Amino acid sequence: MSSQEPSKVSGQFHSVKGTAVETIGDMTGLQSWSQSGKEEHAKGEGEYNAAQAKGYVEGDSVVGAVTGDKAQQTSGNIKNEKGQTQQEINKPT
């Protein structure tokens, strides 16, 4: 797995860290911390969801390959390609 691929662990870490930073910002009145925390939380949730979706798609492809179900394997491969395209579109600039 390359560092560019989404990770559930990394996504959860950034989601929780973002929530903590946002809470500190809210408690201290530091708007920059609140905003930064919200952004990190959102990115973490996005990464977690992308990793989860990637796992489901890969599962379809693998199950299809193992069972010899070419339709399921092809469907999983198409979902994977569509997901990769969507991730490229959603990449922060």
Automatic annotation (TrEMBL):
Coiled coil: none annotated. Residues 1-13, 70-93 have a biased composition (Polar residues). Residues 1-49, 67-93 are annotated as: Disordered. Residues 37-46 have a biased composition (Basic and acidic residues). PANTHER family: CHROMOSOME 1, WHOLE GENOME SHOTGUN SEQUENCE (PTHR40460), CSBD-LIKE DOMAIN-CONTAINING PROTEIN (PTHR40460:SF1). This is CsbD-like domain-containing protein. It comes from Suillus subaureus.
